[in-house]
Specification:
152 residues
Length: 152
Amino acid sequence: MAFFKAIRLGLKIKKDDDEWEYTEEPHVSRRQMILQKHPEIKQLMGYDPTICFYVALTVAIQIFMTFICYYYDVSWFVLIILAYAVSGTLNHSLGSSIHEIGHNLAFGHKRGWANRWLSIFANLPSPSPWPSPTKSIIRITIVGWATNKWMW
């Protein structure tokens, strides 16, 4: 454990099969680079409440498909095709939505509770819930386990 306490940003660790580099999280530097080349993108940044309509529609389609498959007693073959093609696509869309909602991009930072409730609603069709990231989880994954003071 003392080894992980010693790691700081800017340290490189080389192994035979991989190279680990602990520097700043990549989102900041990448955003700055994109804004320098294309400043018009700045107007596209911010929260967008219309995501709640897309999430509601996607959840409704998933629940509707469940009732249709139950009512018509579809065969296993049709059920597997529907689950893979339709539900797989919709679940991926919900997963991307949950990720964006976790960054408070649905209702903004002032209404964090609304973002959390929308994230819980988006999890309804999933057999196992997708985590909605919080700042501590994002800090652990982006900055790294070694620099997180809460872990040690």
